Amino acid sequence: MKKKEMVAMLLAGGQGKRLKGLTKSLAKPAVYFGGTYRIIDFPLSNCSNSGIDTVGVLTQYEPLVLHSYIGVGSDWDLNRKDGGVFVLPPHERENGSSWYRGTADAIYRNLKFVDQFDPEHVLILSGDHIYKMDYNAMLQYHKSRNADCTISVIDVSLEEASRFGILNTDEDLKIYEFDEKPAKPKSTLASMGVYIFKWDVLRKHLLEDGEKANSSHDFGKDIIPLMLEDGNSLYAYPYVGYWRDVGTVSSLWEANMDLLSDHPPLNLNDPNWRIFTRNPNQAAQYVAPEAKVSSCIINEGCIVHGEVKHSVLFYGVEVGEGSVITDSVIMPKVKIGKNVRIHKAIISENTVIEDYMEIGIERENEDEILLIDNRSKKRKSVAAKTI
Amino acid sequence: MKELLGVINLDHELDKLNELTYFRCGAAVPFASRYRLIDFVLSNMMRAELESVGLFVRRKYRSLMDHLGDGKSWDMNRKHGGLFILPPDWNDPTDTSIGDLQHYHNNLDFFKRASAKYIVFSGSQHINTVDLQDVFQYHLEKGADATLVYKAIDQLQPEHDPCLRLELNDDNLVTEIHQEKHHPNVYLDIFIMEKKVFLEQVEYCIAHGESFFFRDVIQKNRANFKIAGYEYKGYHAVINSLESYYKNSLELLKQENYRELFQKNPVQTKIKYEAPTRYLDSANVSNSLVANGCIIGGTVENSVIFRGVQVREGARIINSVIMQKCIIEENAVIENVIMDKDVHLSKERILVGDSKRPFVIAKSSKI
């Protein structure tokens, strides 16, 4: 293999329990977003747009959809003769088998994979965030500081800070302390889970950490503090722009709603930074004479007879006459009958909503986002009723 | 299906779509929001799982080649076979062939190397969803020398005038091939023939100074050959004039046409990575086909909108076809217009054509 300056390792094994039914049989990075994408399209497209041509994707939980979705990587221009995308599930070795025990362990178990490219640097990414970022600009920053590790950070509010890994730095952004989800945060620089390491430095620490029985083998909890202890130079790289963790049903819904304003904070129409995805190849969408569509995103293959307001429709969705959809996310191939009303809900892939159903209308808790699939629809606990 | 070789012959098709075919051949004309005419025949051939497809082009094929690439979009990028784009080639000094026989003569290797025993020929102007496997089975059952596909048209339109007609006997064998305007059985420019017979006839025709295979072999020899007619009953449109292009584009807004053409089988096309279409708060859209990548803030009625079109606030588009990446600025009005790719229409401009003769704006104009 040809020597690479930087290899990306994308952590895509997460279960995403807080996404409830959406990840029942789907890894979190494969969850749908924005009318046509899956979450993993964002880091993969960022790699492709940043000129990173070698990406290892570490999978574990429910990998089938993810593996077949990534395929040979041609959709992200990552089908290369030299490099490209590699799917790396956990595997059995001479001394036994086990699942990836943590984020750092996943990389530790794939040392040989990284070694074959003999890279100077390794980029660690997670597959559960929505953002557009030029990793090459971050690499230039990392190199200019001669850092052992550079961590991309975003400024969050003080109230939110305790949900994140918080970095405490001196004035020139050199990190002296890392607090994983601190009760009393000392700063508001939150780690985005995007790291660039010098490979030889990371390699040494992974080997050390791999031997420790009491380690949780996690980048935030173990590797970063260990490197600080050892006196390595770690820098924060401030990222400015849209970044969303979509780990919960409500944050996934919110991130979808962010796309709907007339000038959305995340521009998906930028020809210079396209988000690539597997094209479902559907006919153009049909908007019927009696339909009304406004403040919404609609994908190809949809047939709309009703009213769609402030909502996201994925491909192949049909909306019957007289139906009204507001503030909702409708995932692929959902069939919505006539005179249905849906408000503030996420409707899961392939769900069929019968005529006259009401979902999320006159609800008790306005803040709760309803998650509906063919199973939950029948349960009484869901605020769905037939009139 | 290894027994059948596909041939798409564009040589006899006239580029009569005015501005739309000044710089591209008819097969490359964009249609139905996100396709080009060639996509429909290629998708039919893909569904029939042909091992190889040869495409004979002569003029203005730059945009067609760009669209087709290596044939991946139609699953035709294969180790064995796949899509062969065969431009004209006259390196043989002894060549005396003319017309489309020239293509066949210059590409004999393509035919000889293919393992297929039969060939299905098609043009690109008839949009249909013919099941070519079914036509092939019918051809074998009939034991015919050639099988021609036709559709009985209820209400003939002006665009059918240049089409050939088939007259059939009770046994569904073709007795006459002519161009009588009022005959309902329109020939779809699709036929199946055995490769061995085809190559023999090519040789014979060249030796006798003939020029067009279909006319000189099939049409002239209808008495000597056993020619079967296969009746196709699904969606069908002929695109051979600007008027037929415009009319059939808007006919897709009828639910039954849309469903018949697209819902039974997906039509494949070159993949673009556009975001889904975004409708702004001020959008007002009805009875329209809209592709991805658009941002719509104005009014769109009874129109076909291609990928990446921007319709700014207050703009009105009525009974029109707007191709890829056009920008329609604030308060501009468009009615009965076909707008080719990359047109930029400034604020408050008004373009109105006639519903029978739409106004056509050439590619990349700025108005």
TrEMBL record, chain A:
EC number(s) given by UniProt: 2.7.7.27
Limits of the Glucose-1-phosphate adenylyltransferase/Bifunctional protein GlmU-like C-terminal hexapeptide domain: 291-367
* Catalyzed reactions: alpha-D-glucose 1-phosphate + ATP + H(+) = ADP-alpha-D-glucose + diphosphate
Please tell me whether the keyword Transmembrane helix is annotated for this protein: no
Positions bound to alpha-D-glucose 1-phosphate: 100, 165, 180-181, 191
| Recorded metabolic or biological pathway in which this protein acts | Glycan biosynthesis; glycogen biosynthesis
Q: What class of enzyme is it?
A: transferase
- A molecular function (GO) term: glucose-1-phosphate adenylyltransferase activity
Looking at the UniProt record, the site noted as Could play a key role in the communication between the regulatory and the substrate sites sits at 60, 99
The UniProt record lists the keyword Endoplasmic reticulum: no
Q: Which Pfam families match?
A: Hexapep_GlmU, NTP_transferase
Question: Where is the Nucleotidyl transferase domain positioned along the sequence?
Answer: 8-260
Q: Entry's PROSITE patterns?
A: ADP_GLC_PYROPHOSPH_1 (PS00808), ADP_GLC_PYROPHOSPH_2 (PS00809), ADP_GLC_PYROPHOSPH_3 (PS00810)
- Provide this UniProt record's keywords sorted from A to Z: ATP-binding, Carbohydrate metabolism, Glycogen biosynthesis, Glycogen metabolism, Nucleotide-binding, Nucleotidyltransferase, Transferase
Q: What does the record give as the function of this protein? A: Involved in the biosynthesis of ADP-glucose, a building block required for the elongation reactions to produce glycogen. Catalyzes the reaction between ATP and alpha-D-glucose 1-phosphate (G1P) to produce pyrophosphate and ADP-Glc.
This protein's assembly is summarised as: Homotetramer.
> Can you tell me which family this protein belongs to?
Belongs to the bacterial/plant glucose-1-phosphate adenylyltransferase family.
Protein name per Swiss-Prot or TrEMBL: Glucose-1-phosphate adenylyltransferase
Q: Which organism is it from?
A: Paenibacillus tianjinensis
Recorded name of the encoding gene:
glgC
UniProtKB/TrEMBL annotation, chain B:
| A molecular-function term among this protein's GO annotations | glucose-1-phosphate adenylyltransferase activity
Question: InterPro entries per the record?
Answer: ADP-Glc_PPase, GlgDAde_trans, GlmU/GlgC-like_hexapep, NTP_transferase_dom, Nucleotide-diphossugar_trans, Trimer_LpxA-like_sf
Write down the top EC class of this protein. transferase
Q: Where is the Glucose-1-phosphate adenylyltransferase/Bifunctional protein GlmU-like C-terminal hexapeptide domain?
A: 283-349
The stretch of residues making up the signal peptide is none
Which SUPFAM superfamilies does the UniProt record give? Answer: Nucleotide-diphospho-sugar transferases (SSF53448), Trimeric LpxA-like enzymes (SSF51161)
Domain Nucleotidyl transferase, by residue range, is: 16-156
| Keyword Nucleotidyltransferase assigned | yes
The UniProt keyword set, sorted, is:
Glycogen biosynthesis, Nucleotidyltransferase, Transferase
- EC numbers on record: 2.7.7.27
Determine the domain of life of the protein's source: Bacteria
Q: What PANTHER family does this protein's entry cite?
A: GLUCOSE-1-PHOSPHATE ADENYLYLTRANSFERASE-RELATED, GLYCOGEN BIOSYNTHESIS PROTEIN GLGD
| Family indicated by similarity | Belongs to the bacterial/plant glucose-1-phosphate adenylyltransferase family.
Q: What is this protein called?
A: Glucose-1-phosphate adenylyltransferase subunit GlgD
